[in-house]
Amino acid sequence: MNHDINIKELQKNCFRQSKVPGEFMLQMRVPGGVIEARHLSLVQHIADTWGNGQFHLGMRQTFSLPGIKYENIEAVNEYIKSYIEDIEVELCDVDMDVNDKGYPTIGARNIMACIGNSHCIKANIDTTTLARKLEKLIFPSDYHIKMSVAGCPNDCAKAQFNDFGIIGIAKMEYDYDRCICCKKCVETCAHHATGVLSVEKGKIVKDTCCCVGCGECATVCPTGAWTRNPKKFYRVIIGGRSGKQYPRMGKMFLNWVTEDVVLGVIGNWQEFSAEILNHKPVYLHGGHLIDRAGYDKFKEMILKGVELNPEAEVADKIYWAETEYRANIHVKPACNTK
Amino acid sequence: MSYSVSVKKMNEILKELQKDYKVYAPKRFEKRGRYSDTDLIRYAEISMVEEIVYDEKADFSPKEVIYPITQTLFYFTEHEYKESKVHDKGILIFARPCDINGIKRLDTIFLENGDQEDIYYKRLREKVKFILMECKEGWDTCFCVSMGSNQTDNYSLAVRFAENNLLVEVKDEAFNNLFANEKTTDFTPEFVTSNQVTVKIPEIDNKEILKKVHDLDMWESYNSRCGNCGACTSACITCSCFTTSDVIYSENGRAGERRRVWASCLHEDFTEMAGGHSFRNTPGERMRFRTLHKVYDFKARFGEEQMCVGCGRCTDRCPQLISFATTINRLSEEVNKLKNKKVSQVQAASKEVE
Fold it and tell me: Does CATH place domain A7-91 in 2.40.30.30?
């Protein structure tokens, strides 16, 4: 077939090119990975009517519908109008005009999240609600950003491999008189976390510096001696990425910050990106963008106007540890013509 | 005499009572539960009716009011010692029938077990007067009716909580004057008459059966289920075990205190002796001990009633979702099987003789 298709334009509407010329895969956003199951019938309708009957649980928690023919894209875009309205406008309070042209941009990728404390016994935060608040801040922006929200430092959400990984942590409080020294917290902390607890004179002492705030001590405590401070705290990991050249895990940027700080930081992302990219929203991993700006510049811009809470900690420096797929991969010819 | 009292008036009465009493009731500790964004409900001092959580079961029992988790018995310096003190007020506890019956079990353990009364228990216990919280339905883990602990007349006041007022029965004349100006009513508390769960107590009536119960396979199933955390015993109204130890102050090796802290028969080190030997080495063995203690040992020793009052808190608090009611019923079934086996053996033997 004689195709003349602007692939870049379609990609912007979240249609991904297939190896079969003229076929595309639609990626539907599910911010935080949780929506009402009733939407599945809409997904099924698209797959059955215009796709190849299958759907992929996208790696970033999108509904991905392959096998959509180019000539059907207009109809699909019309059909998903109600979904975009329901999810983006109603659920996430995103400020956007929804029309029948489909998704306006693919820039900010779907925000991933684990199920969080609405279900999980380990989680410290409501990841779904936070993901929806973050969606409002980053969508629809043409500037690329990948985010994931993890309910606890176990990080099932792989916050460590995103531009911004947000991890729910808890300030643990100890009631000396309620403790019966069963040592369950000591054992679980050593087994699951950083081993900061030990026994002294029939009670528990803690090396507060190295506590990761996972909350394991509270989940095993029989008497409620360990409890979470009801105030929610977050750890922010930056610059993690996969990739073919030099993948790396993220590094800790902020620790023990409040939700206001997280929202303030993410709110600054678009301005930071625009500045560093000369106001051209080209595809670049967040980690690369931070590298291009330099960590100090990044820190200055991303914390602009953000009031840090008294408990907050900020990384002074960041030393990345990359997996270099070939030695000295960063050493390149000085007269590179490109 | 019974009265209908507005919440506002009851708060005034509570204020008056607090001159002479510390008042304890189940109180909500927001977001302090085991899991994130869950609440913890436990006994604590209250000063207003609104603080009392009457429509949910407390996670922990009122025993901690009179038998604190950590309790200093005395302080010592070189050759001298000084007994710890308790406050000089009375104690009022808002409690359900199961808990009031549970405290009766604690009284037996601390005051009537052997010829020595536990003075550290007694000095708080004798201050206590109960305010019965009417409990008409209970919850899905309760089995107070099976344990006969759904009723009590051991209270000074009894209350029914309604939307804007409380119905109060005043049984203790000492409190009459506080309610003198209130509207009288004919309220008397009702009690739970049936639970969603029924528990059948195993009939272990001889040593031979007891020995076989000791060796039942069912205990082994708990080896992989029970985590030995002791949440059940901590929540239990009738568990009374503690460990006594001397804590020496680090600044001065010659001064310190003797204290007792709750212990749990579910913990690995509960039966550990000097040299490292333990009597019960598996979670199943510890579950067996606890189960038999609650529905056999206590009655075998003291004769009147089982230790367990069926409050169901052990089930509510178990992070591994082990139901104590189910455990007891399982044991009863096993005991029945043992007995039937024995009967059929006897019948078979007598047939042979014929």
Answer: no
What ranges do the domains of chain B cover?
Answer: 2-64+85-185
For residue A93, is it left (φ>0), alpha (ψ between -120 and 50) or beta?
left
| A172-228 matches A112-169+232-314 in CATH topology | no
Q: Where are the beta strands (DSSP E) in A1-137?
A: 15-17, 23-28, 56-57, 63-69, 112-113
Comparing A147-156, B197-206, B264-273, B340-349, the range with the smallest average pLDDT is B340-349
Complex-level ipTM: 0.94
Residue with tokens 């019938």: A41
Q: What is the pLDDT of residue A1?
A: 67
Mean per-residue pLDDT, B165-184: 95
In whole angstroms, give the CA distance from residue A104 to residue A94. Answer: 12
Contact A74, A27 (CB under 8 A): no
Residue A336 binned pLDDT confidence (cut-offs 50, 70, 90): low
Q: Are A229 and A211 in contact (CB under 8 A)?
A: no
Cβ–Cβ under 8 Å, residues A99 and A88: no
For residues B3 and B179, the answer to whether their CB atoms sit within 8 Å is yes
Query: What are the residues of chain A with a beta carbon less than 8 Å away from any beta carbon of chain B?
Result: 117, 121, 123-126, 151, 168, 170, 176-182, 184, 201-202, 215, 218-224, 227-228, 230
CATH class of this structure's domain A112-169+232-314: alpha beta
Q: What is the pLDDT of residues B203-254, one digit of tens each?
A: 998 999 999 999 999 999 999 999 999 999 999 999 999 999 999 998 888 8
Nearest Cα residue to A126 out of B40, B38, B32: B38
Q: What is the pLDDT of residue B346?
A: 75
| Closest CA–CA distance from residue A130 to any residue of chain B (Å) | 14
Residues in Cβ contact with B189 at an 8 Å cutoff, skipping those fewer than 6 apart: B132, B134, B158, B159, B160, B169
What's the distance, CA A177 to chain centroid?
40
**Are B70 and A177 inside 8 Å of each other by CB?**
yes
| Topology of the domain covering A172-228 | Alpha-Beta Plaits (3.30.70)
Rounded average pLDDT over B115-135: 97
Contact A222 B233 (CB under 8 A): yes
Return the domain boundaries, chain A.
7-91, 112-169+232-314, 172-228
pLDDT confidence of residue B295: 97
Nearest to B261 among A123, A181, A218 (CB): A181
How far apart are the C-alpha atoms of A267 and A150, rounded to whole Å?
A: 19
- C-alpha to C-alpha distance for A248 and B199, rounded to whole angstroms: 58
